[in-house]
Amino acid sequence: MNQTVVDVRRVLSVIARYEDSIRRPQEQRWTLVTGQPRWRSNNNHLDPLNPVQGIKPLDFDSYYKYAVRCFEYLKFGSNVDQAIRGTYPFYEALYVCQTPTILELLGWQQNSFFHTQKHLRKEIAPVSRNGHALPVETIKQIPELLEQPVAVFDSLTRHDSSVVLLDANDPAGNPLNVALQPNGNAQHGGRQSTGGIVLSVYGRQAIDRFLQRNAENQTVKYVDKEKIKKLIPSAELQLRGTYMSFVNSSVQHSQTDSQPQTREDLTARISGHISDHPSPSPASPSISPERPKL
Hints:
With 294 residues, the protein is of the alpha+beta class. It contains ten helices and seven strands.
């Protein structure tokens, strides 16, 4: 598909802005640059051999689909920043995402998920203040990380909750867990809303013991075998025989009602709504979705 430079600029601008906001390491980036990409045109169309200066030749449709998702991730990240600055409505919970597809396949209803500012502040507070010491950039990745989890478990401590193991670590190297409640209430949009609740995000210590307990209690609901072998090399032994595996290519990313559905819609909504890139800073622990092979 032959795309104009303007099309590619809009798509890559969204992706680059998200990657900057989470301080994605250079080797994991889709855009392969830091900050606003630079463009080079050939008669107002892409040069197929070198379409964008500093960018590898790309599969436009794959990048476009990722840009649509990044557009939603950025809104959550912006709300996180506002909550930390104290400019987000004090009693309002943050909208995180819709029910991830994996959880839908496990029987969860499609719902909006919310996260309270109280829990957010605890997650970024230092350990000395009984916090989880997570970088803000890690919190901003939660919607994306929930789309492709490493594993899902029924909670060992709460009958109404689940725990999702994410493909990321905290600064101490502990794998990240997210506790989720499928049915709860949150103040959002000036009213009480019913939906899922992101209860807590934290680094899981003694992960081997955690996996063993879940295997023993038969609370393992889903495992991505490839991801868990990379994240926790010893995990396969604890979970052997308990796998519930899905083919990755069959999992479709869920979209919220507010997501742009067409390129024109995306373009219209991007215009005037994207601020300057934040200044680059050292990379925090992060994970990048698989880029199209080039």
